[in-house]
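Bug report

Summary: structure tokens for 33 kDa chaperonin differ between web form and batch submission.
Environment: batch mode, default settings.
Steps: 1) Submit the sequence below via batch. 2) Compare with the web form result.

Sequence submitted:
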Amino acid sequence: MSDQLIRAISKDGHIKATAVSTRALTERARQIHKALPVATAALGRTLAAVSMMGNALKEDGASVTLQIKGGGPLGTLLAVSDNQGNVRGTVDNPVVDLPLRPDGKLDVGAAVGHEGTLTVIRDLNMKEPYVGSVSLLGGEIAEDLAAYFVESEQIPTACGLGVLVDRDQSVLAAGGYLIQLLPGAGEDVIAKVEGSLMAAGPVTGLLRNDPDPEAMLRHALSDFDLEILERSPIEYRCYCSRDRMERALISLGPEELQAMIDEQGSADLTCRFCDNVQHFSRADLEAMVRGLQKKM
């Protein structure tokens, strides 16, 4: 089954919810970054989260960036989603390897770290992007994201994220959900949501049984009658191009470009988000220098 995103609302009007299945795109990220399991799990959770946040933006060209700096050995986690929920991401140290937790699960919290921030950047094609940041609670990402919505946007939120890694380090299941209270929902609704989520169990267990995010959401919110508003495919999608990389080189200026020519003779640029490598020959670089000098 291809990766999917669904959006839903409860028929009583008390909650809205989004859910994603992201096994394929998480496996793509693992292969690109050659990530070991704990990095795969952390990056996969971040990608699932930002996909749901990005899809909530309906403006063409809008995007959401989710950055997590926890002070742990993974370094910075960075993921970006377009307004359809397609994502790309990176992690500073993808080959971090840590012992399993006492319960046998990957120790994502220790790998991410507990002392740092979760930052959300929404670019709505306006003069300045919206930036919100909260202190990390535990580095497990789902609870940190729920805290962000409560603190920065005053939206009571439940978040579940999970990545299940096989013995060969490939991704068996990945995805998550965001459940948010709508105005008018009272304490009884909160208790109902909490009870339903507790009974449903972990995200990875739900997706292992059925990779359809609708099935996961209906299990997670079994006490509610849901109406599905949208279902759309999502994927790992990078927007890098040779032109963008060329503009990055040009931005260095003629002196740095000339130094690059003198020292290296050419340049190979690799996209930080994907495995796209572009080669710029000596002639390419010299043409950039001439073009910049003409403008001076």
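Above is the batch result. After comparison, the two runs are identical; trailing whitespace caused the diff. The radius of gyration is 21 Å. The first helix runs from residue 23 to 33.
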